[in-house]
Structures are given as structure tokens and as C-alpha cells.
């Protein structure tokens, strides 16, 4: 079997296991992979973050860095969501700083996660600074779609 197809299929299986609550199967599949791509790391980080396991998501994020793989926008968005689960604004601001250094702070995924994080922790000045920085065509739609959700979370 082609190695690229193996990674693709394994990543899809991890998402499926995660969505169906079979976290141990997703973890086992991840550990058994001979090589991991950004997609496989993101899959398991996202599974942990969405299942209320923020410590595991952040731990895996750090392992990814140690392995030499650079995070992408999806990684940062998932890890920021995990920081929300920790109830720790400092975790989120540290991740935000790294996202800025890596050039991902203005992507839609990361901007949404940052906006929700700052609003959740009532850091409205930071949320507004972020919004002002992201001036552009998508901002009005983005704000309209997300402001109501933020106000009710």
C-alpha cells in the first residue's frame, strides 16, 4: 500500500474514532504510525481538544514541536480551544504569541479561536484589537457569524 494513502486513511480513521468517542483507538493508531504528518498530529490534538482533554491536547502540541514538525493554522486553532478548556488565559496568550511568530495569527481558523478565547476571558480590548487588525472583506461576515455566539457562551 502506498505510504501516502496509509497516512490519509489513518488520519481519517483517527477523526472517525474521535467523533465516535473511541479515543483509545485513535491514540493507538497514532502511536502505531511509523511516521506522522501535520494532519495526523492535528487530528489527535483536535480529538483531545473537542473531548474536553485540554492537557492532553497541549501536551501533544509540545511533543509535535519536539519532533521537529511546525504547527499550522489548524494546530493553533485546536490548541487555543484546548486553552479555553483549561480556563487559562495565559496558556492562550502564549499560543497567540507563537502563532504571531509563525505567521498564522491572521488566518480565519486562528482568528476565530483567538476571538472566542479573548471574549470568553472577558478580554474585550484584545478581542477588538484582533478584529481591527483583521480588516478586510471577510470581517463583517466573520463578526456577524461569531459575535452572537460569543455573547451567549
TrEMBL record:
Q: Name one GO biological process term.
A: RNA modification
Q: Name one Pfam family in it.
A: PPR
Mind telling me what this protein is named? Pentatricopeptide repeat-containing protein At3g63370, chloroplastic-like
Claim: Ribosomal protein is one of the keywords in the record: no
- Name the source organism: Elaeis guineensis var. tenera
Q: Where are the transmembrane segments?
A: none
Q: Which domain of life is it from?
A: Eukaryota
Which GO terms label this protein's molecular function in UniProt? RNA binding
Tell me which UniProt keywords the record has, alphabetically. Answer: Repeat
The UniProt record lists the keyword Repeat: yes
Q: Which NCBIfam families match?
A: PPR
InterPro entries the UniProt entry points to: PPR_At4g14850-like_plant (IPR046960), PPR_rpt (IPR002885), TPR-like_helical_dom_sf (IPR011990)
